[in-house]
Amino acid sequence: MFPTVSHFLNYLFGIDLPLPFNTFGVFVALAFVAGYWAFSQEAKRKEALGIIKPTTRKVVIGEPASMLSLATNAFFGFLVGYKLIYALLNYKLFVSDSQTVLLSGKGNLLGGLALAALFAYWEYKEKEKTKLPKPKTIAVTVRPHELMSTLIVWAAVWGFLGAKIFDNLEHWDTFIQDPIGGLLSFSGLTFYGGLICGGAAVLYIARKNGIKPLNMLDIGGPGMMLAYSVGRIGCHLSGDGDWGIVNLNPKPFSWLPDWLWAYTYPNNVANEGVPIANCVGKFCNVLPQPVYPTPIYEVIAAFLIFLVLWKIRHRIKLPGMMFGIYLMFNGLERFFVELIRVNSKYTVAGISFTQAELISSLLFICGLILVIFSIKNKEKLTNY
Questions:
Q1: Which of 136, 159, 217, 297 could be stapled to 323 by a disulfide with Cβ–Cβ 3.0 to 4.6 Å?
Q2: Is 131 helix (H, G, I), strand (E, B) or coil?
Q3: DSSP notation for 260-276
Q4: Secondary structure (3-state) at 352
Q5: In angstroms, how far is CA 154 from the centroid of its own chain?
Q6: pLDDT of residue 246 exceeding 90
Q7: Would you tell me how many other CB atoms lie within 10 Å of the CB of residue 82?
Q8: Largest alpha-carbon pair distance within the chain?
Q9: Residue 64: phi, psi to the nearest 5?
């Protein structure tokens, strides 16, 4: 396994290059890049078809830098300098435990003040370049696909918060033992929490910019599935604990690689299992018994679903139907993976289920309802 990018580079090229980047985080970033690409492409297509339209916004140009903008830039610059300079001066600590460095109160005061002054000065000079004797108000046309970068940022922030909240609810016993650590930790993220909260934030911003909810949902369906596929690669390569139950069954096909059927996740980032002999360092555990590598199964399934959604998107004309199909595929994929995946279970009225099984079932039902709604309201939605 490759808990950090350094481990991956060492495996590929045999070089020891200490970097403060964990593999899971890198693939989460790549997932957002993939999602942004798909969102933008689909937004441009719907824009060309006239389904979503540009909006006009009034902006004031020629104004000097305001005290608020200077203060905001100075504050942001201080945070960057406070942490960045400290991290560079304590690079070994940053590489070994970047989370503690970033989330603790430790930092470099002089570095923070220096970058605060630099960021404020930069903002001042940029505003001076466009300053007019008399500021004026102009109308600016905002094309829908230009909003996608903003939407992705909102999805990332609120998606992370939602993923943390749902994960802590799912592992309540662990959370109440260390609530601060549970909230601030970068590990432990629940996909459906991120989907629900991130999706709500995206819909809010899209509606403020004239994009109707069903159209925005349709734009996001294929991209979210692609992003999920990319993100799950990071789960597998880092060994973050999203694996399956113990699998001691013989391979159904001799040509099937062992790691695709049953895997022990050596050097996993979750530090679960038993110590590895002669291993030195932070990630030195391996699972005592092989398990189903469910993240890989989800990478393959999600990517195939993305290809299907991407192929049929031209044929779907009714608002909401694409997203309904996405929800149904999403729910089915996750429900069946949950059958062989390790997860916390709840028991209600004698029925045992996981959080993901419950939510995936609800998503499938909601998707089916949305598809039926789109068909039954075909005439109304044609001019939606």
A1: 217
A2: coil
A3: HH-B--TT-TT--SEEP
A4: strand
A5: 11
A6: yes
A7: 22
A8: 79
A9: -75, 170
| Residue where a domain terminates, one of 116, 139, 162 | 139
Task: Out of 104, 139, 174, pick the residue that ends a domain.
Answer: 139
Same domain assignment for residues 120 and 244:
no
pLDDT over 90 at 24, yes or no: no
Count of residues making up the chain: 384
Domain that holds residue 135: 60-139
The angle at the Cα of 295, spanning 188 to 309, to the nearest 5 degrees, equals 110
* Amino acid 214: pLDDT: 92
DSSP E strand boundaries for the chain: 55-61, 136-142, 274-275, 285-286, 345-348, 351-354
Whether residue 353 sits in one domain with residue 232: yes
| Confidence check: pLDDT of 273 > 60 | yes
Its pTM stands at 0.85
Task: Tell me the C-alpha distance between 114 and 77, whole Å.
Answer: 8
CB contact at 8 A, 31 and 133: no
pLDDT at 152: 86
Q: What is the DSSP string of 99-112?
A: HHHHHSS---HHHH
Q: Which helix (H) or strand (E) holds 118?
A: helix 109-129
Cβ contacts of 100 within 8 Å, gap of 6 or more: 93
Quote the tokens at residue 288. 């005592």
In a domain, 359, yes or no: yes
Supply φ then ψ for residue 348, to 5 degrees: -130, 125
Phi, psi of 73 (to 5 degrees): -65, -40
- Pick from 104, 241, 128, 258: nearest CA to 184: 104
**Local structure of 318: helix, strand or coil:** coil
